[in-house]
Design brief:
The structure is a single chain. The protein is α+β, with helices and mostly antiparallel strands and 183 residues long. It has 2 domains: 94 residues, Alpha-Beta Plaits, CATH 3.30.70.120; 65 residues, no CATH class. The chain is rod-shaped, with a radius of gyration of 27 Å. Strands 2-3-1-4 form a 4-stranded antiparallel beta sheet.
Length: 183
């Protein structure tokens, strides 16, 4: 039974944190991690300033915000069509020779409803795309407040010493075990 248990166990992995002074050594550190077989899925960049994927040599993360915005715009347009044309047809009120479906005021309603729903759905798309709020434990690194960049990564125990040496050679100030805690 213990042999079966040993076959199903995954190799032990450690969470490590490498702190860099600037973005160039951090990018070299990313290259060193990938060179040792650690994939981008197991690396998290922690920074006080926004860093794009291209700056660190990572593949572009797909964003669904434009799809949310387009869906919101279409929804808003359809709501505007209902308000501008559906309501007067449901409750016809003829006023002093004016047409039942006036076009100029309807254009304003269509535009405003389209933009309103597009803005609301874009906000929700950004909110959901950034995975906010997150209640899982996070790594707090005090050096980030001083402008440093950290790489949090999962490393197999058997190559840990090689990875630490490669990161130090790439310019890491420190490489230490990560301790996740709820903030």
């Amino acid at each position: 039974m213990s042999e079966k248990k040993m076959l199903t166990e995954e190799p032990k992995k450690n969470m490590l944190l490498a702190v860099f002074q600037d973005i160039d050594p951090a990018a070299h550190g990313m290259d060193a991690l990938r060179g040792n077989g650690i994939t981008n899925d197991h690396i998290t960049v922690i920074s006080g300033t926004p860093i794009t994927e291209g700056m660190m040599g990572r593949p572009r993360h797909p964003s669904y915000v434009p799809r949310f915005a387009f869906g919101g715009a279409v929804t808003g347009f359809l709501i505007g069509v209902f308000f501008a044309f559906g309501t007067p047809l449901m409750y016809p009120v003829y006023v002093g020779g004016q047409p039942l479906l006036p076009v100029p005021p309807s254009v304003v309603v269509l535009f405003e409803m389209t933009m309103l729903m597009m803005m609301i759905s874009t906000f929700l798309g950004v909110f959901l795309d950034s995975r906010f709020p997150s209640y899982s434990p996070k790594e707090y690194v005090p050096e980030i407040s001083d402008g440093h960049i950290a790489l949090l990564f999962e490393c197999p125990a058997e190559i840990e010493k090689t990875v630490v040496k490669a990161l130090k050679d790439a310019g890491a100030e420190s490489v230490r075990p990560a301790e996740l805690q709820t903030l």
